[in-house]
Write a structure and sequence with these properties.
By secondary structure, this protein is mainly alpha-helical. It has helices spanning 2-7, 49-53, 71-79, 84-91, 103-109, and strands at residues 22-23, 26-27. 32% of the residues lie in helices and 4% in strands. A hairpin with a 2-residue loop joins strand 1 (22-23) and strand 2.
């Protein structure tokens, strides 16, 4: 979970707001509103994915900070599974009317 939050830059899974309920013996990650935060400025054309990806993830306030020492090993295992096919299949699950064109795409069509 810590790796996933770092991957999507979720800054809101802290001790104050863990959003990790247990239900029927399983852990559920909920409320991802603080992840992929570049979308907050998307309509203004300032949502830079490069700027979003550049800063290192700060695990110091994460609810699972105790597992941070395993991040290198976890990254090797998990990043090998995240490829273009996986990301495309995930994006394909999002209804088309939920997706806005990237600002650069909109500008190039004008």
């Amino acid at each position: 979970m810590l790796w996933l939050d770092a991957y999507v830059a979720n800054v809101d899974r802290t001790w104050r707001n863990p959003n990790l309920p247990m239900w029927h013996g399983r852990l559920w990650a909920i409320d991802h509103g603080a992840a992929l935060y570049f979308h907050d400025s998307w309509p203004n054309g300032v949502g830079s994915t490069a700027r979003f990806a550049a800063p290192p993830y700060d695990v110091s306030q994460h609810v699972l900070v105790a597992y941070a020492s395993a991040m290198g090993e976890t990254h090797e295992a998990m990043s090998a599974q995240v490829d273009d096919d996986l990301l495309s299949s995930v994006v394909d699950l999002v209804p088309a009317d939920w997706i806005e064109p990237a600002p650069a795409s909109t500008a190039s069509r004008r």
